[in-house]
UniProtKB/TrEMBL annotation:
It comes from Candidatus Daviesbacteria bacterium RIFCSPLOWO2_02_FULL_36_7. GO terms for molecular function: pyridoxal phosphate binding; transaminase activity. This is Aminotransferase DegT. The active site is at K167. GO terms for biological process: polysaccharide biosynthetic process. The modification N6-(pyridoxal phosphate)lysine is found at K167. The chain crosses the membrane at residues 45-67.
Length: 336
């Protein structure tokens, strides 16, 4: 049955009561909001060093730049947004594509640099199998997720975050951060991201301007105040939805060691096209996140089990009670 005259429920809905003081005062760059946000993220993540960037991609580029003399090869699962590894290709790293997602027998490479990507708000189980191998983390979708009580993005040599508007913790446009506990990495990251400057002094090092602006930082400070409550709300909604879904759903799983923030509520559905049509008729948006379009051509066949069945439904903290009820009833109608 097609529902008429009911508002459609979208996967993403951005709204905020934020009002900018920074915009009105004209202090748009290099101000106190940047420093304040960096300090608050340090505390939130329990990490020594934080540098804000103008995107998650810029954070990854900076990480690969700092490590390029130590490593020439990047071991990466390509089932991710390509920005995870494209900056490394730009810097002439050799790509070694390895499927790790939903694989229990992965041998973590000791040669080259590894990147662990925490997709959809879920801590990556590879954290338990690193065995001393060098790695960085792409935690762009998972700010606040935890493994064994520790925030993802803080386990490897360097961690990278995105604050793009589709992320659970987001700014009013593009934004990101790179974090580390290593002082040498921090200083080199700082120079590369901030036009060659360190502690206010210009160096002769190769550098770019990848900085965040004050207005974006001000918005993130506003969002951070209430972020953990929003995540708790999102987790409760996800729990309600999960109870109605039959079969194993690996992207929704948690164990005693993991804390999932459900930035994307992804399911594997065999009859995906029928399911999407069914949900659309109920006025509920679904998205294929990701299809095989994000994969290198020679890797596509390895992921058919995912790309043929994965589908996301709305699961966000600002769903109304009525919207939650409609989604629950739709899930019951499909699975029960």
């Amino acid at each position: 049955m097609i529902l008429k005259n009911k508002p459609r429920i979208f996967l993403y809905k951005l709204n905020s009561h934020y009002s900018s003081n920074v915009y009105n005062c004209g202090k748009w760059i290099d101000g106190i909001k940047i420093r304040e946000l960096e300090e608050k993220i340090k505390k939130f993540l329990a990490i020594k060093y934080v540098i804000l960037t103008n995107s998650g991609t810029s954070a990854l580029l900076a990480a690969y730049w700092v490590l390029k003399n130590e490593y020439k090869t990047l071991n990466v699962d390509p089932y991710t947004f390509p920005a995870t590894y494209q900056p490394a290709k730009l810097l002439n790293y050799k790509m070694n594509f390895i499927r790790t997602i939903l694989k229990n027998n992965v041998i973590f490479p000791k040669n080259g640099l590894n990147i662990i990507t925490h997709l959809f708000g879920q801590p990556n189980a590879l954290l338990a199998r690193t065995e001393g191998a060098p790695f960085i983390e792409d935690a762009c979708q998972s700010f606040g997720a935890k493994y064994k009580g520790k925030r993802v993005g803080t386990f490897g040599k360097i961690g990278c975050f995105s604050f793009y508007p589709t992320k659970s913790f987001h700014t009013n446009g593009h934004g990101g951060a790179v974090v580390t506990n290593n002082q040498d990495y921090y200083e080199r990251l700082k120079i590369f991201i901030e036009s060659g400057r360190l502690n206010g002094k210009m160096t002769e090092k190769i550098a770019l301007n990848l900085r965040m602006d004050e207005i974006k930082a001000e918005f993130l400070l506003y969002e951070l105040e209430d972020y953990e409550r929003k995540v708790a709300c999102q987790r409760q909604i996800a729990k309600n939805f999960k109870s109605l879904i039959a079969g194993e759903q690996p992207f929704l799983e948690e164990d005693e060691n993991s804390y999932h923030i459900f930035s994307v509520f992804n399911m594997l559905i065999k009859k995906r096209n029928e399911f999407r049509k069914y949900m659309s008729n109920k006025g509920i948006e679904t998205i294929i996140y990701y299809n095989d379009g994000i994969l290198p051509a020679r890797e596509k066949f390895k992921y058919l089990d995912l790309t043929s069945s994965i589908v996301a439904i709305p699961c966000r903290w600002n769903l109304t009670d009525r919207e939650i009820s409609r989604i629950k009833n739709a899930l019951k109608g499909w699975f029960v």
